[in-house]
Structure to design on (363 residues):
């Protein structure tokens, strides 16, 4: 009987330096669940689901309101996604990969599937801010969050191809990667598309996203991205990401429409203001809004409170950001002790803004 692709484990697949077949890989999964760390527990649980007899697999995700929902995928879709990534980046049999992402997120799950299907030699390490701590190996292919990439800048010469995703890539990080001559790509994707469906080479000025093979994009009336990916069994997937479309395979990301600030007669995208400000501000921040009797909403700069952040210096840095339009300039600085964020470093804006501010400073 002809086995479907998802039943196969590539005969060149190595996990932490060892070959495994379906039976022995199940034993590893059971061991991860019984005796492993938390990240190994998630890996083991996912592996058992992947290696069972079902042709489908269930994932859990949460929406902006933190409501959990279950998604069902054909395992063949994960295989097709892995092959597409391999073809796009030229990742092939015997290449060395590093798995440093948590397996309870789609990016971590897909990194493992790519290795199983493409025959990669993958090292598993516990997710941390600096995955290269005490690790002197070189790798052909690595996926990281922006936080991990930023904390690993001095080590990324060991990586031939780096993909960065899961959260916003700041201008500061992009410029550091360019300066370090890192062959880095920003990814665009989500749980529903089984990780990335488009990537952009990190260049200055910012390049547009290019779709992976067999991915097509278009816009709805809101100018938001719609994704069609037949090999992923995705059709007419409507997002809340406003984009500029150049073709059915190329686009520029503008920002999420549910983040839009309505200030006076203007609609402002926080992500666009953040990109401009990140050229001058090197600390962690984001742009949001608070109600204003005259404007309806006014732009505010949200920062982690730090005694080293001096108002006079910060005001000068903002003023020196010549790319900002007058209406984009923050009117107030809101300081919190901490940001609420996901593991990948994506700030939960609404949850953060619902906290009690530590300080509020008017510019």
């Amino acid at each position: 009987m002809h086995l479907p692709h998802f039943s196969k484990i590539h005969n060149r697949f190595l996990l932490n330096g060892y070959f495994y077949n379906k039976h022995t890989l199940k034993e590893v999964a059971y061991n991860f669940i019984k005796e492993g760390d938390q990240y190994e527990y998630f890996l083991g649980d996912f592996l058992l689901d992947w290696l069972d007899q079902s042709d489908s697999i269930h994932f859990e995700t949460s929406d902006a309101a933190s409501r959990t929902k279950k998604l069902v995928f054909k395992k063949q879709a994960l295989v097709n996604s892995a092959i597409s990534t391999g073809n796009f980046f030229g990742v092939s049999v015997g290449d060395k990969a590093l798995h440093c992402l948590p397996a309870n997120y789609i990016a971590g799950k897909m990194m493992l599937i790519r290795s199983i299907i493409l025959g990669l030699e993958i090292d598993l390490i516990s997710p941390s801010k600096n995955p290269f701590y005490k690790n002197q190996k070189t790798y052909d292919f690595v996926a990281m969050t922006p936080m991990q990439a930023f904390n690993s800048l001095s080590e990324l010469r060991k990586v031939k191809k780096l993909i960065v995703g899961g959260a916003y890539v700041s201008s500061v990080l992009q410029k550091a990667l360019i300066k370090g001559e890192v062959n880095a790509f920003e990814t665009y994707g989500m749980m529903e598309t089984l990780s990335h469906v488009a990537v952009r080479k990190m260049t200055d000025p910012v390049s547009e996203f290019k779709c992976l093979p067999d991915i097509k994009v278009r816009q709805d009336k809101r100018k938001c991205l719609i994704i069609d990916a037949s090999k992923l069994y995705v059709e007419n997937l409507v997002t809340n990401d406003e984009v500029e479309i150049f073709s059915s395979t190329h686009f520029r990301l503008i920002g999420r429409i549910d983040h839009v600030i309505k200030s006076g007669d203007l609609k402002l995208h926080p992500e666009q203001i953040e990109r401009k400000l990140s050229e001058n501000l090197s600390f962690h921040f984001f742009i949001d809004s608070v109600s204003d009797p005259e404007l309806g909403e006014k732009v505010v700069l949200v920062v982690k409170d730090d005694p080293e952040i001096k108002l006079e210096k910060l005001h000068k840095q903002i003023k020196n950001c010549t790319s900002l339009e007058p209406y984009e300039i923050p009117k107030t600085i809101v300081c919190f002790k901490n940001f609420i964020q996901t593991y990948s470093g994506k700030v939960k804006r609404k949850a953060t803004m619902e906290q009690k501010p530590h300080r509020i400073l008017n510019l």
